[in-house]
Amino acid sequence: MDKYDKVFELAKNRGFIWPSFEIYGGASGFYDYGPLGATLKRKIEDEWRRFYCVGEGFYEIEAPTIGVEAIFEASGHVGGFADPMVTCEKCKESFRADHIVKETMEIPDGLKKEQLTDIIRKNAIKCPECGGPLGDVYDFNLMFQTWIGPGQKKKGYLRPETAQGMFVDFPRLLRFYREKLPFGVTQIGKSYRNEISPRQGVIRLREFTQAEAEVFVNPQFKSQHPNFNAVRELMLPLWDENAQLTNGPSTPMRVGVAVEKGTIANQYLAYYVALTYQFLVSVGIDEKKLRFRQHMCTERAHYATDCWDAEVFLDGLGWIEIVGIADRTSYDLTAHQKRSEVDLSVFIPFEKPMKVKKTVVTPDMKTIGPKFKGKAGKIMAALKAMKPEELDKPEVRLDIDGEEVVIESSLFKHETVEVDVNGENVVPHVVEPSYGVDRILYSVLDHAYDEEIVKDEERIVLRLDRKVAPITVAVLPLLGNDERLTARGVEIAKDLKGAGFFVEYDDSGTIGKRYRRNDEAGTPFCVTVDFDTVEKDGTVTVRDRDSMAQVRIPAADLSGLFGELLCTGKPLEGYGKKV
Ligand code: GAP
Q1: Model confidence pLDDT, tens digit, residues 199-233
Q2: Tens digits of per-residue pLDDT, 360-377?
Q3: What confidence tens digit (pLDDT) does each residue in 307-332 have?
Q4: Which residues contact 421 (CB under 8 A, 6 or more apart)?
Q5: Mean pLDDT for the chain?
Q6: Is there an atom of ligand 1 within 6 Å of 161 CB?
Q7: Contact by Cβ (8 Å): 390, 379
Q8: What's the pLDDT at 301?
């Protein structure tokens, strides 16, 4: 078994993740989180909230997972959110064309369908299922379409990203944030993509969870993040466009230097790359298996000026993107402004009013009105929009509803005056860190998975970070059939639950088996209740999952001990009496 299979087996057997709808044969791209998986996921999301909602002060919102058609037409998803697909002419099975090609040779991301067809033909790539000939590559739209209400009058789509919900709420959010930039909004929730033949477990799902932050900034200040100094000296493993082009490795670089050298486009983007690094390490991603890859200009989304993916190395799968951090410019708000005809700009006051030259046009309406009748209003508006040099002519030619209208200069007067302007309307830019929670969760499991030989026996241990481990403490009576031990165990478990810890009481099987079970579940601490506990001094044994060190502690001190260990991350060995 390779590591991917081992981690997945453990995930299934210990109740983390398993395929959905198993009794009906399952469906690829759908996975359930079992009791430990759902708890681990919630703890990872809570840690994300600690970074973004508490740390950054970005409020979380909750928008519907179904959106009306206009949203996704404006965002470009209906027209262009597609992957290249190819179908076997013999068995009719369909595949992601770029994935099939990548199984045979290395190609850059983002190749067009014509280029992929060409590569398939030139290299005689055949159907991986039946060896039959493959057809031409075509675009397959990944949106799940539905109808809202009865009948087929109102088309809707399951959202492919949580982001759009935050863009369309922009006017209300702006009011909530007292009309001031910058501000950030977050959302954690399900997104849906009808992925072509998803084959990598929870890495490519058709229903998955995203945690996204949209940070709305005045474009003028994208290179002045107010908290940049907090991350300036942080070292990040960056794999920029040049390094990729020359097949070079990723290089550690300080965040401040990356912005000064222009490797990362601006401070805002760099700040969220740094925050992503800190978050991922905090939930247990191995920093030696983490890098940030800059998107090549050929693969960058049409709206993004610069984009970095956090990638982790997973045995058996290689480097996998788990977070995308993009400077989306004003693309989304401009697109929604155009489609909805609602002003999505922000009034930015100047520090001091500015004197601005303005052309004032006074049309002779007494003549223009009767002469041009219904067109008079549009003519007036068109004249007012013209520059002085365009008006300084014997006659001006206007395009009114596709018809040329000639206005002699005697029909209007114009003059340039100086006026005070107090500010300007700006469509904010958006910097977006977009996290795939499922991929992060799987990577956390992969990086935590460990095997070692202890006393000639193999021990499998999930070295999960203490704060995300689904169970923090397992309470184990030494013997499961001694009433005094079990009763005291239940009592201790109840006290610890009352103090807010995630506790599992377990009295089935030998103590050795229970330790192993909890090692595989990633439980950082086990508390063993024995005869000294009930007969002698009230102390219990606390065992550390990773070092297997054991210390003796009064049962009454347990909640204080675990509170401190969770907060500080200190080793257990510094506490109590060594066993
Ligand atoms: N709003 C930007 C956005 O959605 P993305 O790169 O398409 O960007 C962001 O997605 C993250 O969502 C990815 O880095 C990945 O972790 C996760 N993701 C995307 N598609 C996924 C899928 N089919 N299954 C699981 N996770 C996925």
Answers
A1: 888 899 999 999 999 999 999 999 999 999 999 99
A2: 888 888 898 898 888 888
A3: 999 999 999 899 999 999 999 999 99
A4: 350, 353, 354, 355, 356
A5: 95
A6: yes
A7: no
A8: 74
Q: Verify whether ligand 1 is closer than 6 Å to residue 163 (CB atom).
A: yes
Q: How far is the CA of 255 from the centre of ligand 1 (A)?
A: 24
**CA 405, 407, 410 angle in degrees (round to 5)?**
170
Q: What is the Rg, in whole angstroms, of the alpha carbon atoms belonging to the chain?
A: 31
What are the φ and ψ backbone dihedral angles of 532, each rounded to 5 degrees?
-60, -35
Determine the distance separating the centroid of ligand 1 and the alpha carbon of 55, expressed in angstroms: 23
SS (H, E, C) 443-498: HHHHHHEEEEEECCEEEEEECCCCCCCCCCEEEEECCCCCHHHHHHHHHHHHHHHH
For residue 400 the two structure tokens come to: 């009114």
Note the Cα 8 to chain centre separation in Å: 23
Distance 127 CA to ligand 1 centre (A): 27
- For residue 439 and ligand 1, the question of a CB distance below 6 A is answered with yes
Tokens of 137: 């590559």
Nearest-CA residue for ligand 1 atom 6 is 324
Asked if the model's pLDDT at residue 178 lies above 90, the reply is: yes
Task: Quote the CA–CA distance of 331 and 429 in Å, as a whole number.
Answer: 8
- The residues near 513 (Cβ < 8 Å, ≥ 6 apart) are none
Q: Please state the separation of Cα 150 from the chain's center in Å.
A: 34
Q: What is the pLDDT of residue 84?
A: 94
CA distance 184 to 213: 7
pLDDT digits (tens, 9 = 90+) for 244-277: 999 999 999 999 999 999 999 999 999 999 999 9
| Protein residue whose Cα sits closest to atom 17 of ligand 1 | 436
